[in-house]
Design goal:
The chain has 639 residues and is mostly beta strands. The chain is built from 3 helices and 48 strands. A hairpin with a 4-residue loop joins β41 and β42. The radius of gyration is 32 Å and the shape is globular. The protein starts with a strand and ends in an 8-residue tail after the last strand.
Length: 639
């Protein structure tokens, strides 16, 4: 209630709703309060100040988020000085429209940048991200979560399409190389239309994933330790390996689809020759690739997952956390083989930030247990005929996420693990070297001539390989039979070497030479060189056999086993014969091959046999021939 006086009689009145009743019985109006101009100005200034303070607070909050104050100390413009300008760090609190613009700019740079020098990594701090944040993964890009578990980072979607090779309607993914996604989850549908030199690891996808773009051509690929709640649709993928994964349904097949360590009942029914499915029920032994993570208390570090034996299905145990203080963080514009080797000799692990490291000497990995982890397809390029990297003797190490690139000058090899000619012996403690997501390239990127005898030599025993693409370029710059010379892709002389997803293409002699005992290949893909000029230039066994087999198991080998092999022929430039896709020694004790196919893609015929003198010929476009079981413990058949 509010009291006033009657102006006429001075009697008290009670005001209600701005009007009152005088004691004399007359209605009285409440007098209007007069607000001075000065009061109005004061109030207006106070309001403006409050608005300014609120605006400044919002602006500062946005600035703090972007700079990392309160989120990631030291972050400036989504970058951290310690990791360099090629690495992005995003947080759930960041403005989603701003993040989307950043991601769109990266995709714009990298969608078609097949042979460019730019390399980028995009990391997401734990949390759920707005649906506007939908990273597309272009050439030489890696998109990853920074949590201990995949579900710690939730994106709406992630992936890549295939609209750049030609016009927007051709959906051709056969050149969607060199990219990866790991350690995150996605709430919506995912398109991952990729080919070789790609990886998707440790992801949880809540809906369906498509391994193609509207059924356009695709030539992948590798998926590991991942869960898809609905279906995987492989569509037009020519071949694929899925290792230790889980899904509700798998849809699709083409030439060679391999499953390893998938729970019983999860793989589609049927096998060769009626269906192109190969099922390896368990993975004998595997250690998953290490990954970068961020913990609010511990800071940055690398998780090293433990070794699994008899592995079936998904296991996201993060493993040991190795703090970043134990790593030397290398940068492409300032580091050399000398600086990296100095850090390695000091006992550091090595984290390669994205970019191209032009090396005039090899990086030397000599200490047991060393981790060399590349990010964003970090590339080691030989510049003076040197190797890119050498691993000493029997040191059991981890190399992961690296592209090895031939440069000018003749080079014997790009990577060598172990020492040639050393006695393999038995591995008492059962530790194994891990080589994960390693890719090799001869030619394509630069105009200069390249010449490599053999891209990768595995001389050490007890190695696990997990996703290789070894490639002599069939297109790009500096490409031709006499321009990018390379005899062999990979040579294995160590015993007990096991490789999951071995893809080797276009080398001028044997693609793969295997000299070690008790070796295993789980999924193999190969294209024979397109550019053979004539038959005389392409003959093995001292000119007595037409062509070079894709896989050559040395005559001395007694035991070897392989599952799911696809070897394809496209004689683009000349009419030449390849006598046999795979050569194995006769009358050996224990050589077994499960499900191998040959395919004549197109061009000039043809391929006469699959293994040695056995298997049907393929001599016209689209022809496919198979052998379902080859067991060399029996006598070899007569010619």
């Amino acid at each position: 209630m509010k009291r006033t006086k009657c102006l006429l009689a001075g009697a008290a009145i009670i005001l209600c709703c701005g009007a009152g009743l005088c004691a004399c019985g007359k209605a009285v109006e409440e007098p209007q309060t007069q607000v001075t101009e000065q009061q109005e100005q004061t109030e207006r200034q106070a309001e403006e100040k409050r608005a300014q303070e609120e605006g400044d607070a919002v602006t500062q909050q946005n600035r703090d988020m972007r700079s990392g104050e309160g989120i990631l100390p030291g972050r400036e413009g989504y970058h951290l000085e310690s990791f360099g300008e090629n690495v992005w760090f995003f947080a759930p609190e960041d403005d989603p429209e701003d993040v989307s613009r950043e991601l769109s700019e990266l995709w714009g740079r990298q969608e078609t940048n097949q042979f460019g020098d730019a390399r980028y990594s995009v990391y997401f701090l734990p949390g759920e991200y707005d649906e506007k944040v939908q990273p597309k993964v272009g050439f030489y890009m890696q998109v990853a979560g920074l949590g201990a578990m995949p579900d710690d980072v939730s994106l709406y979607t992630v992936g890549c399409d295939a609209r750049w090779l030609g016009d927007n309607n051709n959906h051709n993914a056969t050149c969607n190389f060199w990219r990866g996604v790991e350690n995150l989850s996605a709430r919506s549908y995912v398109t991952w239309a990729v080919s070789q030199a790609t990886f998707m690891r440790r992801v949880h996808l809540e809906k369906t994933m498509y391994l193609h773009d509207n059924y356009g051509w695709a030539s992948g690929g590798f998926l590991s330790n991942s869960k898809v709640d609905l279906a995987i649709n492989s569509g037009s993928q020519q071949q694929w390996l899925s290792r230790n994964c889980d899904w509700n349904t798998w849809i699709g097949e083409n030439w060679n689809i391999v499953f390893a360590g998938i729970e019983e009942g999860k793989t589609p029914a049927g096998t060769w020759p009626e269906h192109a499915y190969t099922d390896v029920p368990e993975v004998e032994e595997i250690r998953e690739k290490p990954f970068l993570a961020y913990d609010q208390e511990k800071g940055f570090g690398v998780y090293v997952p433990p070794t699994r034996t008899g592995a079936v299905g998904v296991d996201w145990t993060p493993g040991e956390f190795v703090p970043m203080e134990e790593f030397y963080i290398a940068k492409p514009f300032s580091d050399t083989a000398e600086t990296m080797n100095e850090a390695l000799r000091a006992g550091k692990h090595l984290f390669l930030t994205p970019g191209i490291y032009q090396l005039t000497a090899p990086v030397l990995v000599e200490r047991e247990g060393t981790i060399v982890l590349g990010s964003g397809l970090a590339t080691l390029r030989s510049m003076e005929g040197n190797a890119c990297m050498e691993v000493a003797g029997d040191a059991k190490v981890t190399l992961a996420g690296i592209l090895f690139d031939a440069g000018p000058g003749e080079t014997e090899y790009l990577l060598k693990v172990g020492t040639e000619g050393e006695d393999a012996g038995e591995n008492g403690d059962h530790t194994r070297t891990l080589l994960a997501d390693l890719f090799f390239r001869v030619g394509g990127a630069k105009e200069y001539r390249t010449d490599v005898k053999c891209c990768v030599k595995l001389c050490q025993s007890d190695i696990t390989g997990d996703n290789f693409w070894v490639w002599r370029a069939d297109h790009g710059s500096g490409v031709g039979w006499d321009e990018n010379r390379a005899a062999n892709g990979i040579m294995v002389s160590g015993d007990r070497v096991r490789i999951y997803a071995l893809m080797v293409e276009h080398f001028q002699e044997y693609q793969t030479i295997w000299e070690g005992e008790n070796g295993e290949i789980i999924f193999y893909q190969c294209e024979i060189p397109y550019d053979v000029p004539d038959q005389e230039s392409w003959q093995s066994h001292e000119g007595t056999v037409n062509g070079f087999a894709s896989v050559k198991i040395a005559d001395s080998v007694k035991s070897h086993e392989a599952w799911g092999l696809g070897i394809y022929l496209y004689n683009r430039d000349a009419e030449v014969e390849l006598h046999s896709a795979m050569e194995v020694p006769e009358n050996t004790e224990d050589i077994r091959v499960h499900n191998i196919c040959t395919v004549m893609i197109t061009g000039n015929p043809g391929m006469s046999h699959i293994i040695n003198e056995e298997g049907d010929a393929v001599t016209h476009g689209g022809a496919r021939a198979v052998i379902t079981e080859w067991n060399q413990s029996k006598e070899a058949p007569e010619n």
